[in-house]
Write a structure and sequence with these properties.
- The protein has 352 residues and is mainly beta.
- The protein folds into 3 domains: 106 residues, Hypothetical Protein Tm1070, Chain: A; 89 residues, Sandwich (Immunoglobulin-like); 122 residues, no CATH class.
- It has 4 helices and 24 strands.
- The strands form 7 sheets. A 4-stranded antiparallel β-sheet has the order 3-8-5-6, with no helix packed on it. Strands 7-4-9-10 form a 4-stranded antiparallel β-sheet, with no helix packed on it. Strands 11-16-13-14 form a 4-stranded antiparallel β-sheet, with no helix packed on it.
- A hairpin with an 8-residue loop joins strand 19 and strand 20.
């Protein structure tokens, strides 16, 4: 199985990209649901092509990965003891997006579908007669993350609230929450990216209510800056990020590249921790803010070094490593494609 995604030609210390298409990968997140001895992950390949997935466990600055190959239209089982040394949160990375289905089973318990929701603001909807829920909330930010939960009844009245402080990256907070009356929905709002799983007893079995991002998170940004969307020129691009410019010469250069694609350059830039009030995953389902942002533009270049190539999602996935290596990006296939308004950036809704 060939899993290479790009070819490059070295020119001295520089790398010239040959323009090859590359499908976006997908991360499925799992809080610490049970001990490795009781955990089994089921991965189903829905496509007619072979696929590869990786289990990912984070240890401080490192990610421990093990790959598993799937034949077309097949399903595999991954035991928790194969990749987890202890009960902790982890992720499953699929080579292509929307191709595999991942579920988690704890011993003889119910099956929990895993998904890629990362929005700091989500809602869990509940059927009638549910008064107690079990929540698993996982931190997807490199530092602490303050989370506020609110429960509502069917009349829209708030019937309970609580706060949770997630201290470390990929930490899970697990608890039961009894409200003493029927719950219609629970809204979760974090300062930064997070992932949650909610379950409840339906009477005959335990069920899962998926986290749904009802709308993109609203960002409070600096309206004095000019914003640009950076993405690929694919027919259906799958990843994009935002840069904020305030220097007239950089703004003019970015606009010139939009007007004349023949002048397109690679954005060579420095990044820092935090979305900066403007950087979000604009082409994802939940439009979640990234955990990083561009804090300086070093150049608009024809060539760039291989060490800072990648993509917005890969930078998010490997952010601690990227920051420790100096925080520099130069995604070869990404170009300034559109100027966007402050309203679009803040709302997460792009105009046609």
């Amino acid at each position: 199985m060939d899993f290479s995604i790009k070819t490059s030609i070295g020119i001295g210390s520089l790398i010239l990209l040959t323009h090859l298409p590359a499908a976006a990968s997908q991360l499925f997140y799992s809080p610490a649901l049970c001990s490795p001895e009781n955990l089994t992950i089921f991965v189903k390949n829905k496509s007619s092509e072979p696929q590869r997935v990786w289990t990912q466990v984070r240890y401080n600055h490192e990610i421990d990965e093990l790959h598993h190959d799937l034949d077309p239209k097949s399903e595999i089982k991954i035991r928790g003891t194969e990749f987890l040394p202890e009960q902790k949160g982890f992720s499953i990375k699929a080579w292509d997006s929307n191709i595999v289905q991942v579920t988690s089973v704890c011993a003889d318990s119910f099956s929990t579908p895993l998904n890629d929701t990362t929005s700091p603001e989500v809602t869990h909807w509940l059927p009638s007669s549910v008064q107690t829920v079990k929540l698993h909330i996982m931190n997807l930010y490199l530092k602490s993350n303050s989370v506020h939960l609110k429960a509502y009844n069917r009349l829209g009245a708030e019937i309970g609230n609580r706060k949770v402080q997630l201290k470390n990256y990929y930490d899970t907070e697990t608890f039961k929450w009894s409200l003493g009356q029927d719950i219609a929905r629970i809204e979760i709002q974090g300062q930064e990216r997070l992932h949650s799983i909610l379950s409840y007893d339906s009477g005959s079995s335990e069920q899962v209510s998926p986290a749904i991002a009802m709308k993109p998170v609203t960002l409070a940004l600096d309206t004095s800056k000019t914003y640009f969307l950076v993405s690929t020129r694919d027919a259906r691009p799958e990843e994009a990020f935002v840069i904020a410019l305030d220097k007239p010469e950089l703004i003019a250069t970015a606009r010139e590249q939009i007007r004349n694609p023949a002048l397109e350059k690679i954005v060579v830039a420095g990044i820092e921790l935090g979305h900066g009030g403007f950087n979000r995953s604009f082409l994802s389902r939940d439009k979640a803010p990234y955990s990083w942002s561009v804090n300086r533009i070093d150049a608009f270049a024809d060539f760039a070094h291989i060490d800072c190539d990648g993509s917005p999602d890969l930078t998010e996935e490997r952010l601690m490593q990227k920051l420790n290596e100096g925080g520099r990006i130069c995604f070869w296939r990404y170009r300034v494609v559109k100027e966007i308004s402050a309203e679009e950036v803040a709302s997460g809704k792009l105009k046609p």
